[in-house]
Amino acid sequence: MGLPAFRQDGLYPAFDSARAYRCLLPGEPENVMRECGISSGEPFTEKHIQAVWYDPRLRPVELKTVSGARVRVIDCGEWNFGAGPDFLKAELEIDGVVRRGDLELHLSPSDWIAHGHTVDPLYRHVIAHITWFSGTRPAGLPIDSAEIVLGDAVPGLRPETIDLGSYPRAVFPETARPCLDCFGDDPSRAAALLGAAGTYRLRMKAGVIRRELDEGADEEDVFYRLCLGGLGYAKYAVGFRLLADKIKPVRGNTREEFFACLLGTAGLLPNPDRCQDDETQAAVRRLWDIWWQTGNDLISVPIPAGRGTVRPQNSPARRLAAAAGLFNEPGRLLSRLIAIGTEGSEWYKRAEKIFLEMSAWKFWEKRNTVHSSPGRSSALLGDGRARTLITNAVVPFLLAKGIFPESRIAFLPPEDINEAQRETAFRLLGRDHNPALYAGSGLLLQGLLQVNRDFCSSGEKGCFYCRLVRSYGEQAV
């Protein structure tokens, strides 16, 4: 059941190859094949558990061992990408006693034996075995090692709410990578893998949306939250999704009114005294007037930012100005996208045009920030971001609704290539590969992201412990 090769006519393999891609991933046999259609959601992996443990925003403050001892995390440890336990040099206080050592994280207690840790001397200094599910204490676990069931402490946490790509990635080894030997000299094999991975990724996204809709979520609200998260870029994506939960479009609102409420709730309303010209100062004062009149009963929720800097053209205030044009009238954007149908090779261009038209706002496009004076025009929403929203919000939403033919995803337009995609392409295809293999295909770019998520940043102990080539070989037999 290996992945089919790239076809000579330039089309991607049958989309059931996403089933084959799912078989490359680790998991229980009875769960492996359930992803053959639109999924009910993303599977939980060890990388998710590592992210929950590593991130103090996700890790519960109140923890206990299986035996009931209280646990206080003094230092969660160093995320280990080499051989050995998942976290090194951790420091825990267990029932008032401080312990220092290593931590190993698994889905289930039985994984300790399944992964061969019982006889591995690298695991002798594990002070805590942290699992997502409960179970029988495994034989061979160090006698003084505590057991912590993390899943019991964060009930209801869904894996799709965790952005795995934002957590530490494995470092490239200096020696040749096994995936390069498998895919580097065979573009058709690499294209087949990426096409299947991209299809799998979009099915997973659609599955998450389908579950929300099946649970009674409002369609327009789900679509609005998806798009607002996409407008936030990686740095502000989580904050923008939180903002979408607080501020909803209200019928009859003007664009300026909606913009003022978004800025005010996000704590981003600028100081008018810092504006560099009278026109901008007057506009900012109007935003403040609107906020005090219509939004002063709302609780301000400053949006959290990720690491790194943001170019002025991508500032959160400008992104929210684009959002105000797309969503100040509830349902208008979604209705226009559905109205253009889903057939024909020009669908993506028509959808992109709708995003660009509705987000345009000349006043703010002439200012890089809300404080700056007018200058050279810069679109609030560029072509690349419009295509990103189409790929990550519109298409999965329409797939979940069952009104978008899956065969159309073969023609996804390319997005701007990010660092995770470059990293994965370098691993798979080598330093001197030709980016033309994937750069013109949104589907293959999505595939690069999924391979990165599942393998390159999966929490495995380096490339030579990676399952990709081994699993691919097993499926190809």
List the helices and strands and how they pair.
Blueprint (H helix, E strand, L loop, with lengths): L16 H8 L4 H4 L13 H9 L8 E2 L5 E6 L2 E2 L7 E8 L2 E10 L4 H4 L11 E6 L14 E4 L28 H6 L3 H28 L4 H13 L1 H14 L8 H12 L11 H17 L21 H12 L4 H8 L7 H13 L2 H4 L17 H19 L17 H11 L6 H4 L2 H15 L11 H9 L1
Parallel strand pairs: 5-6, 6-7
Antiparallel strand pairs: 1-2, 2-4, 3-4, 4-5
Helix pairs in contact: 1-6, 6-15, 6-18, 7-8, 7-11, 7-15, 9-10, 9-11, 13-15, 16-18
Structural class: alpha/beta
Q: Average pLDDT across residues?
A: 81
Radius of gyration equals: 24 Å
Give a quick account of the main beta sheet: strands, pairing sense, barrel closure.
7 strands, mixed
Beta-strand content? 5-15%
Q: How many beta-strand segments? A: 7
Bulk shape:
globular
Q: What distinguishing features does this structure have?
A:
alpha/beta, 477 residues, single chain
How is this structure best summarized?
This protein is an alpha/beta fold. It contains 19 helices and 7 strands. The protein has helices at 17-24, 29-32, 46-54, 111-114, 178-183, 187-214, 219-231, 233-246, 255-266, 278-294, 316-327, 332-339, 347-359, 362-365, 383-401, 419-429, 436-439, 442-456, 468-476, and strands at residues 63-64, 70-75, 78-79, 87-94, 97-106, 126-131, 146-149.
3D structure, described in words:
The protein is an alpha/beta fold and 477 residues long. Among the domains are: 112 residues, no CATH class; 213 residues, no CATH class. Helix content is 44%, strand content 8%. Strands 1, 2, 3, 4, 5, 6 and 7 form a 7-stranded mixed β-sheet that branches. Helix 7 packs antiparallel against helix 15 and helix 9 crosses helix 10. The longest helix is centred in the middle third of the chain and has 28 residues. It is globular and about 70 Å long. About 5% of the residues have low confidence.
